[in-house]
Design goal:
heterodimer; A: alpha+beta; two-stranded antiparallel sheet; 2 helices; B: alpha+beta; Glutaredoxin; 4-stranded mixed beta sheet; 5 helices; 5 strands; 20% strand; globular
């Protein structure tokens, strides 16, 4: 998502530096890294969702 | 007038020579509300013209409501990068310029391969997920 044209999203997800990744709306981090860095947040997001959605 | 230079087009043709399977590109624009989105539509159409395994479907964000809903398009300009049979859920929003143009080409090649290139360890971890997870990566033009 190229965020320049979407200031509302930049504001909503507090995008000040890039690349910024938002996982499942609530978990976020800045910067690039190995895929192992991404797996945990994805697992957390899936687990968080399952407790929220009934 | 072409958006891509002949040099870039030739280079991309070389890249697309390694396409394994067909890739469908659905591009959503709306000239009235967002003239810039028309540029993206033209770019994707030009891109798809470089290889017979690439196809493009152009949609109007306002008029083609059914398609917008089916593919879960939230805003424009948007590009959905899909396999012939399978939609992996890959969407690109905004202008695919600079570094992001490379990201678009990479996404096309990945979808064509039908393989994410992820490690066995990551795949094993992802298999256990209880439900779909929405991932959004934000970038700015470079």
């Amino acid at each position: 998502m190229e965020v320049t044209g979407y200031p509302d999203l930049a504001q909503k997800y507090h995008v000040s530096s890039v690349p910024k990744t938002v996982v499942g709306e609530t978990i976020e981090f800045v910067g690039a890294g190995p895929e192992s860095m991404l797996l945990k947040p994805v697992q957390q997001a899936a687990a968080a969702n399952s407790s929220l959605i009934v | 007038m072409a958006l891509m230079t002949e040099e870039v087009a030739a280079q991309l043709k070389g890249e697309f020579a390694q396409l394994a399977n067909p890739v469908r590109l659905a591009v959503f624009s709306q000239a009235l509300a967002d003239p810039e989105s028309e540029q993206v539509r033209r770019l994707v159409e030009e891109l798809a013209g470089l290889d017979p395994r690439l196809s493009v479907e152009s949609y109007n964000f306002v008029l083609d409501k059914e398609k917008v809903e089916e593919l879960g398009i939230a805003r424009i300009p948007a590009i959905a990068i899909m396999g012939a049979e399978k939609d992996y859920g890959i969407r690109m929003y905004g202008l695919p310029s600079g570094y992001e143009f490379g990201t678009l080409v990479e996404a096309i090649l990945d979808v064509s391969r039908g393989d994410s290139g992820l490690s066995e360890e990551t795949r094993a971890g992802l298999k256990e997920l209880a439900r779909p997870v929405h991932l959004q990566v934000f970038s700015t033009p470079t």
